[in-house]
Amino acid sequence: MTTVLVVDDNEAVRGGLVLILESAPDLEVVGQAADGREAVGMVRDLRPDVVLMDVRMPRMDGIAATRALAGVADVLVLTTFDLDEYVYGALRAGAAGFLLKNTDAESLINAVRVVARGEGLIAPEVTRRVITAFAPPTAPATTPLGDLTDRERQVLAEIGRGRSNREIADRLNMAAATTKTHVSRILTKLGLRSRVQAAILARESGLLHPLADDEPAARP
């Protein structure tokens, strides 16, 4: 069972999100918070698998709360706004995913499952902008990759292409558990907070070519 904390300053929105999430047999909402400060306190007590986080809230906004929860909980940011400052702010703060509130119920439930598996997800509406902003086609490969092994570089490149752990394991002929270990080591060595940040770094470092215009954007 995947446990979820829902964070939104609008009570009606929180209630709607709870109804959607609890319609899935494998998801359980263990708490609700009205702002980021309350969410941080509740996460430390409840230890949810995923925090569904709004951005615009009083006292402490969702970006600050996500930053405070880095390394403590996996945060899926859900907002009405797709402004660049929110997208980039959420990802830099360590969010595991970013979705817009116009997402349908099925996609929202699936996103929570993806984040709970330790993978990342960015709303299709903003994926292209994120790639363009962090890895323009002419950018040189100037970002250091620390002391990654050749295998870890291969795994990082696949993360950058939006592949899940299972897909990476199949593509590189590795066991799923080995893939998960490689991903964990990559994040630790590079000082990254989330898989999404790893995907961005892979593109920024020149490990792979940016997506072609006719290639669908994949899940980070």
Automatic annotation (TrEMBL):
One Pfam short name: Response_reg
InterPro entries attached to this UniProt entry: CheY-like_superfamily, NreC/VraR/RcsB-like_REC, Sig_transdc_resp-reg_C-effctor, Sig_transdc_resp-reg_receiver, Tscrpt_reg_LuxR_C, WalR-like
GO-annotated biological processes: phosphorelay signal transduction system; regulation of DNA-templated transcription
Domain named HTH luxR-type: residues: 141-206
MF GO annotations: DNA binding
Residues modified to 4-aspartylphosphate: D54
Domain Response regulatory positions: 3-116
Protein name: DNA-binding response regulator
Biological source species: Actinoplanes auranticolor
